[in-house]
Fold this protein.
Amino acid sequence: MSLKNILFMLVGILLGVLIGVLPGLGGANGVAILLPLTFSMPPTSAIIMLSCIYWGALFGGAITSVLFNIPGEPWSVATTFDGYPMARDGRAGEALTAAFTSSFVGAFIAVVVLTFLAPLVAQFALQFGPPEFFAVQFLTFCSFVGMSKEPPFKTLASMMIGFALAAVGLDTVTGQLRMTFGIYEIIRGFDFLIAVIGLFGIGEILLTMEEGLSFKGASAKINARVVWQTWKKLPKYWATSIRGALVGCWMGITPGGATPASFMSYGLAKRFSKDGPQFGTGKIEGVVAPETAAHAAGTSALLPMLTLGIPGSPTAAVLLGGLLIWGLQPGPLLFVEQKEFVWGLIASIYLGNIVGLLIVLTTVPWWAAILRIPFSIIGPAIVVVCAIGAYTVHNAMLDVALMLFFGVVGYAFKKLNYPLAPLVLALVLGDMAESAFRQSMIISRGSLSAFWANGLVGSIMALALALLFWPLIVQAKNSLLPKRA
């Protein structure tokens, strides 16, 4: 890795920790807001910086959870259960060291899986044609509907809005305009980047302003003795770490995400630990489990994104949009045509997590001090950064107005508990899925049998339908159980 890329990696980690420390922003929001900064960079440097922002945000989210009982990220909620009680008992340094080290372990295991599994998956995917690609994209959409923790109706509604937005503009197959209503400026369609900056960035700021967020918490001191004493305790929890990493890898590769992975890992640790009944009172194992799983899920979500062009998390969806903007097509050919890019990214994950661990262990008091700055200063500064980012996409004020519109939409979605990730997923993948579907129809002369023409595409479609109807299957199973009893 060149010196320039190492510098971008350090900047990315510092920005990421800052984003993770500020409650409400989150990794996906931070990557979306800062994506325009990378337009003039080479793709490898850009993806290294953006991915390091994400690793930094994963580390930073633990700081507010432990010290202030405010989860900086959704996946840090489970960390507050035992992390904050430890801080109140004067063990903030021990809790933070355990959280950071567990995050590192989870990411390391996941990146080893990514290193060895990704080339095999990509090699396999080289045999794919349009029907297989559409089947994989259909599988992603179905899994979001069937496996989401949100009600399927809300997920489906969010996804349909994303498809509608993706359809606006010039039809690349027929050359005709769709849903532009005579407005020249939207011939190019709704830019994915404008939408995510508004939906995630502005939406969160509006929500935070409404809640009147204020920060009060414990102070943190980490020194070499505390770190060493904590590291001597952690090997006792190797089974919790391995279990958390496996849960995280699975939930990252499937579109489960880091948040359900952290809760699932915490629940399993509580179930299998001899100290399970004491969880919630300040047990170090209750910090290790969710942090390991969350970081493993965040890292492994890159595997389907790189090999198949399918994002495994909202952040991966934003990174996928970045790849398209830089002229790279995620998928199996990426491993053949852009080897330097792929392996540069994987190398940056190894280095980024090592450097991130060292940075957060040595600078915790600085980040905690940021939370003493009033939100009335931080909030407007973030809005200005968002507006600059939106304007630089096409140098058009219309994009700033659209960003604000999407911000209001994002705020409404969050107030109504509608998920944003399916909308973003449909906006990013909508065009690709439509293109693959139409190519399949042309090949098969309009017959849907193309999606059942061989065992591979048929099995993917069958799995997709099973995941789509999974809530109904579970409901039917539960209704039958009492009768059996």
